[in-house]
Amino acid sequence: MANVISLDSILGVGELKAAAEAPPAAASGCASSSCGSSDGPADMAPEVWEKVKNHPCYSEEAHHYFARMHVAVAPACNIQCNYCNRKYDCSNESRPGVVSEKLTPDQALRKIMAVAKEIPQLSVIGIAGPGDSLAAGGKNTFKTFEMLAKKAPDLKLCLSTNGLALPDHVDTIANYNIDHVTITINMVDPEVGQHIYPWIFHDHKRWTGLDAAKILHERQMLGLEMLTSRGILVKVNSVMIPGINDEHLMDVNKAVKSRGAFLHNIMPLISDPAHGTHFGLTGQRGPTAQELKVLQDQCEGGAKLMRHCRQCRADAVGLLGEDRGSEFTIDQIEAMGEVEYDQEAARTYREHVEGERAGRNAAKAAAQADVAETVGTEVQPILIAVATKGGERINEHFGHAKEFQIYEVGPKGAKFVGHRRVDQYCEGGSGDEDALGGVLSAINDCTAVFVAKIGGCPSQNLKDAGIEPVDRFAFEYIEESALTYFKDYAERLGQGAINAREGQDAVIRTGAFTALRA
């Protein structure tokens, strides 16, 4: 099994403790929180857990271990969104609708086989564009899935759509055993929608303004209801656009919950003028980190929330938070020759992950119980930033981090609430002061940053900014370490040794880092 990528290789040689050292498995499921995609097997029916446990988009825990792949076989689109421009492509940028190469179904299948050989963590194949997966009758989408189901039946099938054509294809989706569908729903009031969608193309006609928004809304709601009635899991994506739909998204959350959506993913608007979108060119801003979190928190209690989305490219490959697509161009795949899917390698990796997971719930529950018993509820939760390469561990050097995962830690536990993309501070052995400023602005709302290692200069800069650098939990699990830190933090707070850090905000830099691995 030379191609099996074990957790040791994800975390670094010597960083993964032996399974024998792990605490025994808990009898119940998720112990950390009930924040949507962080739910565990105790929070849902067994058949649903089987569908989501290895899906990095539908399970926050799974995104630490499993990879996804998007194949760009759907170039046509039937609507225009004011935040989208599919003509733009930059190899170092990541956002929906962007691809470097459009594929035929045959090319997509070859690419999937090549990626699966190199990345046994691969568990999900999705079609998310660069247009709409169901535009033009979904011909390329369903052809790709038909061939893939014969070659690699254990890979999960996923598609994303704006929902306009969805009601026409629900039966086909069910027949192909596609049990994960994402619908982008930005409004349930056409008065709001007319400011997001200039036009749609439906029933052989172009519709504009309020009429377009009304048709789109009706088709989205119908498609959502049809999918959930068939037991297909639906994730709803919504783009938060300050001043247009930000307050309205609470109504969207309630509406999709009432129609059976499994998750609601509220994403920040990407509005860089360089992308050439209408919103970018007209100066429509995206939300700050605090604005996004406040809205997500307000939606708690409605449809369950996804908070670990990276707003991936339509040709993304790898773990969430990275994109290895540039390693698998058409030319590179052609040079590989015929590649067969190694189902045994994938199975072995999944069993490895199950073994790693087995001891996690008990440890999380014990740490949470300790905090609940010793820390009073009057201590306010804090945010911490974590430098990690995956595996739920603190295993990245501060200077090498390309993103920080953000956890909210308090008397009720620790939960993942987002991520912040940054430029790498340390390259070639020296630090970049401009990059350090970007890191500080990205995690400015955090009380502490957890790292495997950090140099003296950035450590002092963090302290000067009021952010505590913490390396004493190097290579340990994130949630247990965060709870241990919070217990100590509360004690120091009570003694007057430190003051609570309040009133800070942070800058969101959207997308996942895109780079060729060494």
What does this entry look like structurally?
The protein has 518 residues and is α/β, with parallel strands linked by helices. The chain is 33% helix and 16% strand. The chain has helices at 7-11, 46-52, 105-118, 139-151, 170-175, 190-193, 209-229, 249-258, 278-281, 289-298, 330-336, 343-358, 360-374, 433-442, 456-464, 478-495; strands at residues 67-70, 79-80, 122-127, 156-161, 180-184, 199-202, 205-208, 233-240, 263-268, 305-306, 317-319, 382-386, 403-410, 413-421, 426-427, 430-431, 448-450, 468-470. The strands form 4 sheets. It has an 8-stranded mixed beta sheet. 52% of the residues are buried. Its cofactor is [4Fe-4S] cluster.
Strand order of the largest sheet: 10-9-8-5-4-3-1-11
Which structural class should the secondary elements be placed in? alpha/beta
Between the first and last Cα atoms, what is the distance in angstroms?
A: 22 Å
- Uncertain parts: 1-35, 512-518
Number of strands: 18
The biggest sheet amounts to: 8 strands, mixed
Mean pLDDT, as a whole number? Answer: 84
Residue share in β-strands: 15-25%
Shape: globular
Compute the gyration radius: what is it? 22 Å
Percentage of residues assigned to helices: 25-40%
Task: Note the total helix count.
Answer: 16
Organism: Azospirillum argentinense
Family: Belongs to the radical SAM superfamily. NifB family.
Keywords: 4Fe-4S, Iron, Iron-sulfur, Lyase, Metal-binding, Nitrogen fixation, S-adenosyl-L-methionine
Pfam families: Nitro_FeMo-Co, Radical_SAM
